[in-house]
Amino acid sequence: MTLKVDETEQGEWTVLRIRGELDLVSSPVVRQSVHGAVAEGQHDVVLDLSGVLFCDSSGVGVLIASRHLMKSCGGRLRLILPARGAVDGSHVNKVLGALGVRRLFEVYPDAESATDEESRPLTA
């Protein structure tokens, strides 16, 4: 399965909707998408991972690198996992939890809450 990244704007936020498998072969696409958004002056980025069916350590590495990039430029990074999956069911959530890095990210159930300054992230 190939990876697709679609970019939209929601207020001040750039939302990158990622669908497919996030692995060694496809993770550079996500890395380039995040770097592209920053190069265009977007410093508030949401990665919508609700369409990611599989994520390996390379994918997690890209998420951590994206977090580091956003912090270094004074920006913010938020992740979207499916509402139920963010709590217990998504593959990405399980991988982040197993590697002990889930706590590094602000996770939201959907784009509306991720781009709303009043919303609070889901707990790990």
Structure description:
The protein is an alpha/beta fold and 124 residues long. The chain has 5 helices and 5 strands. The protein has helices at residues 27-39, 57-72, 85-89, 91-98, 111-114; strands at 4-10, 13-22, 44-55, 76-80, 106-108. It has a 5-stranded mixed sheet with strand order 1-2-3-4-5. Helix 1 (27-39) packs parallel to helix 2. The longest helix has 16 residues, at 57-72. It is globular and about 30 Å long.
Report a brief summary of the structure.
With 124 residues, the protein is α/β, with parallel strands linked by helices.
Q: What is the CA-atom radius of gyration, in angstroms? A: 13 Å
Element order: H for helix, E for strand: EEHEHEHHEH
β-sheet strand percentage? 25-35%
Number of helices: 5
How do the helices and strands line up, and which of them pair or pack?
Elements: E1 4-10, E2 13-22, H1 27-39, E3 44-55, H2 57-72, E4 76-80, H3 85-89, H4 91-98, E5 106-108, H5 111-114
Parallel strand pairs: 2-3, 3-4, 4-5
Antiparallel strand pairs: 1-2
Helix pairs in contact: 1-2
